[in-house]
């Protein structure tokens, strides 16, 4: 049920989703711009598989330097928004569930995943890690970015916590529609604990608004 509500939320939110990148917050803007620069360097001349590509915000940035990009999302409404953008290299879009679709093996230099880890149930991290690692070339790497929690307040308190420790929060669309979705936040130590048994942690940036990681399968 939660996966269905999460998918419905993002399908409905697609036209307004990119508001998150343009909030009037200099700190957020500075961190996003820093990540964009790091990502351009990481994917330069590389073949990229982007999972949960959403509206193509990071796809467009990667297209400035990448060799090729396969961008995947399960929400057709997100892909409609992504296809509106102009890309510097050909981008192949696919509507697919990353957990059921096969993307081959030994095929991509980079697998990118933006703002999904916080929605992944904790009890299914092993499954996600397998999905991320399977399409990589032997020297390939994984790039992830996600949110750190905003300033504390009543609206940021979880509305529920399940027996796996996953937290649930209310989210509202511009039209007032309400959804309850799984949304976890992580300290730096949390992330190290989750990643270190499966990956070499090449880089882990944990700042005020966002964290990002570059990982290499062991």
Shape: globular
DSSP helical segment count: 6
Q: Span from first to last CA?
A: 34 Å
Arrangement of strands in the largest sheet: 3-2-1-4-5-10-9
Ranges with pLDDT <50 over ≥5 residues?
none
Q: Tell me, rounded to a whole number, the average pLDDT.
A: 94
> In what range is the share of β-strand residues?
25-35%
> What is the H level of CATH, i.e. the homologous superfamily?
Vaccinia Virus protein VP39
Which percent range fits the helix content?
25-40%
Number of strands: 10
Element pattern in H and E: HHEHEHEEHEEEEHEE
- Output the structural class: alpha/beta
Q: How big is the Rg?
A: 17 Å
**From the coordinates shown, what is the CATH architecture?**
3-Layer(aba) Sandwich
Quick one: CATH class?
Alpha Beta
């Amino acid at each position: 049920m939660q996966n269905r509500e999460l998918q419905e939320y993002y399908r409905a939110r697609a036209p307004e989703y990119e508001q998150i990148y343009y909030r009037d917050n200099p700190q957020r803007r500075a961190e996003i711009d820093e990540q964009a620069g790091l990502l351009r360097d990481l994917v330069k001349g590389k073949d990229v598989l982007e999972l949960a590509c959403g509206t193509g915000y990071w796809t467009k940035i990667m297209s400035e330097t990448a060799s090729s990009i396969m961008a995947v999302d399960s929400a057709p409404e997100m892909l409609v928004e992504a296809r509106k953008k102009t890309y510097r290299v050909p981008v192949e879009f696919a509507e697919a569930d990353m957990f059921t679709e096969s993307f081959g093996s030994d095929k991509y230099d980079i697998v990118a995943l933006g703002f999904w880890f916080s929605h992944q149930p904790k009890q299914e991290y092993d499954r996600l890690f397998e999905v991320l690692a399977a399409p990589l070339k032997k020297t390939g790497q994984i790039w992830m970015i996600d949110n750190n929690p905003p300033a504390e307040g009543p609206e940021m308190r979880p509305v529920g916590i399940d027996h796996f420790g996953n937290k649930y929060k209310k989210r509202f669309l511009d039209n007032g529609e309400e959804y309850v979705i799984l949304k976890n936040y992580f300290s730096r130590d949390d992330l190290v604990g989750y990643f270190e048994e499966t990956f070499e942690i090449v880089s882990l940036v944990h700042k005020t608004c966002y964290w990002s990681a570059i990982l290499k399968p062991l």
